[in-house]
Amino acid sequence: MISTKNLKKIYTTEEVETTALNNVNLEILEGEFCAIMGPSGCGKSTLLNIMGLLDNPSHGEYHFLGHEVSDYSERDRAKLRKGNIGFVFQSFNLIDELTVFENVELPLLYLGVSSKERTEKVEASLERMSMMHRRNHFPQQLSGGQQQRVAIARATVADAKLILADEPTGNLDSDHGDEVMKLLAELNEKGTTIVMVTHSPHDAGYARRVIHLFDGQVVTENMQEGFHV
Amino acid sequence: MFKNYLKIAFRNLWKHKIDSAISIGGLAVGLACCILLLFYVRFEWTFDNFHENEEQIYRITDQTQSSDPDTGEIQIRKSVIHPYPLGAALESSFPGIDQLVQISNGQIYLREGEEFVTQRATFATPGFFRMFTFPLLYGDKETALSDPGNIVLTEETALRLFGSRQVVGETVVVRLHQDLYTLTVSGVAETVPANSSIRFEMVLPFENFFRNEHPDQQETMRESWWVGFSETWLTLKEGTSPEHLKAVFPSLLTTHFGEMAERQNMELGLQALNEVYFDQDYSSAITGSTNRLYSMILAGIALVILAIAGMNFMSLSLTRAWRRGHEMGIRKAAGAHARQIRFQLLGEVAVTCGIAFLLGMVIAEIANPLFQQITGRTFRVDVMNDPMLWLWLAGMVLLVTLITGGYPALKMSRRKASLLFSSRQSAARIPRFVNGLICLQFVLAIVFIIVTFTMNRQMRYVLNKDLGFSAEQVIAIEVNIEGEDASRVAGLFSEQARMLPDVAQVSVIGSTYRSFPDHVPFQRGYGIGMGTWQTSTTLPGFENGIITFEIVDEHYLETLGIELLSGRNFSSDRPGDLGNGVLVNQTFAEVMGWEHPVGEVLDDKAEGWTPSLDGKEVIGVVGDFHFKPLFEQMRPIVLQHLQTRDIPPQTILVKTGSVSLSEAVNRLTDLWNRIAPEEAFNYHFLDELVALQYLEEQRWESIMRFSTFMAVALACFGLFGLAALVAQGRTKEIGIRKILGAGVAQIVALLNKDFLKLVFAGFVIAIPIAWYVMNRWLEDFAYRIEIGPGVFLLAGAVAVLIAFATVSWQSVRAAVADPVDSLRTE
Predict the structure, then answer these.
(1) pLDDT tens-digit profile of B341-358?
(2) Best of B2, B6, B328, B330 to disrupt the A interface by mutation (most A CBs within 10 Å)?
(3) Which residues does B146 contact at the CB level (< 8 Å), separation at least 6?
(4) Where are the beta strands (DSSP E) in A29-76?
(5) How far is C-alpha B608 from the chain's CA centre?
(6) ipTM of the complex
């Protein structure tokens, strides 16, 4: 599903040039659950941006679902992203002005799905996340765990093949964090590919494979046998 | 999708109530000002367009040239007043004329109850209501003016006189010269539209104009080519061009004026009706005119105010959009295209803008009476039922949306969604473009402040300047009586008035001191009636060969506090002086080049005629006094005694003592009613008449004051909103600074600094602009203030102070907030 070859990302400001990613070579197969770990500033978020088609690499190749996308325009990336990739963020990133239902509905709106089908899909997704009873609430009225569940509902509502999660439990207590991780694991079991950035070895335990980044480079890749289920 | 946008737009507006109120309210208020100002401008630009054949109506104009024998300078005189026989001569010499109407204005006496009151009357030949579209509510426009015994009233006049509109067949009694006539109402005209340059209260057949003159003069006025008093208006037959008519003018002039036509380079011309209102080359007692520049300036002000409001709106939208980078990132991550982001942001601006426009229209409708009071003009404003306005507004909504929403939409849609994963949030600085807008707003606001201050200073200067006479506590009473009776009443009244306890002095004079007919304030330099008499002279040094004189009595100098510099005043002890002596002002003596004017005899000889001042002896010199408005330089004037000329007294000036003016007026009214019970007691306060000379300027001053207030208020409004956004955006920074030991004053200074820099930059840019504009305005005044640095500094200080107060309101709030809270929210 994802394959990168000598992927490089360099940020340039007036005075400094920072290499965020340096010759990253990765292969992530469909249906995998992969965790990316590493200290702050090692390039995890940059890698996630590129994988999520939110940014282009400076050099190297990036193949996503068989397309070489490293020099795709913003418009083409947006087209490919739609419906294929879902995002889950540490700070949930729900739109405060929209209700739970409307937040989840958003990707379907941009996909041009009909109103009836939208309602069905959003309700099903909220049902899956046990958030139906909160459908008319605004994000501020929910707990952190609930907000993250809504965010996952949003990420999956359009049947995304890939979910990119950036520290999904970073703002949650351990109970809520576990709840969220279990949801992700369930999704993975049903076939969704998941790439998750995390600091937490506990969370990383849910993944089949853990990739360690350091100074923009992949230092180790471990297949885990005894991951949590 | 659209519903989603709308929903989020409204929720956003509601969530940021204060911001929304500021941007919507500001734009609405700015728009309301703009709508009203544009209505006013449209009103001015549509003058006279209601006449059905507006494009075919012309007025005859003329022009003569003479050259000053001393300087050789060519002087051109333009006029629309012509001798009566011109009408008949034109009709007989040019068959292409379709209709021809002669019009004149004058004053008649109308019996109302027991008294005769003065009444402004229009005299016109029978075609008046056919040529001009002044529809008659009652009566027949074809015949309304054909019988000299008829009169046409406007509906207001009919209501005033009879309490009803349908008054055809009723009669009114008028006194023309000294005879009474009973006229039958033959028509009632609809109210004259506000945008008509021709205004009238009643129209009398032209014959009545002659009846109103001295019987000895009537024949001359009917037949002479040398006395001008009427305007000639005409329409041309189809297929006849004005050029055809102009071609016969030279021969017509030669036939009737002989070699004089050539010597004075006489020319006749045609002025189209739709040019009348903006053509200030000609002064007319029938039509008003105004400077086209004024309405253009007003349109400019309207756009500036809208621009300021628009800039507010734009800077607030932009800054807010900046804050919403996060939301836009989420949308992008959820699959939104850049185009969809742009569409959403533009849509939100359109909604906000639409609300502001609707609100603006309501405000305009409500504020209309106040606005008309400020502008001093009455015109129809019907915001709700004006399709043109709606169309124009829809266009404006689109334009404002594109301008104010376009930039943020473009910027935001290009922002990278990848920032979402970054722990760094975007900085809370104001976008540079918005800084430019704030600065520009303050440039405009400060220019307005300087303009208002300068206008105010000039008006105070003009109104308080030592005029060489004292207008305070002086009551000018009209003597609207013809012939010998006038002298009797004036003599008796002044004698008895002088005995009243609170009267200091009384003077009887031979010119009219009264307020202007409605339209004259449009015309500069008319003055209050002092020195309205003029006579031709051959003496060198006098403009156009004309000397201004005033007919006074021996109490004039004392009543008006005019200084006698040398020689003697008129006195009944020296009857010779009354007939042959004159007083002159200093400027007169200077023009004549006299060192010792007293005793000089005016040697004013001409070939074929005798100038009226020839042989008069100068008995005294008085100090210069401004008998004309301060637009004009001091001019020479001659004072002659009432007994010299066959001119009846027209005004009595009463200088009162220390008692209240109203009390004095009451006593004078009683006295008048005893002496002349049949005549109405009409009076004015002289200082008010003096101030009236600058009515137009005062009107402009109040328009500018209003505009300045709006401009400054709107600019501050925007600043207030922005300061709040900035303070909110810098909460974390403020918290950290406070934890590190910053005090409230330091935080306030930190937040205010950026804004004040912009205001200061605006001030620097505003100075040359305001200086140029105000110098152009002041050029009109012969007596004017100089614009010193004081006014600029004051305006700058005012702007900075207001801006400081506005921004500090927000800064102080941010600075006193608990840093623990602010850091926790981050």
Answers:
(1) 888 888 888 888 888 888
(2) B330
(3) B126, B205
(4) 33-37, 59-64, 67-68
(5) 44
(6) 0.75
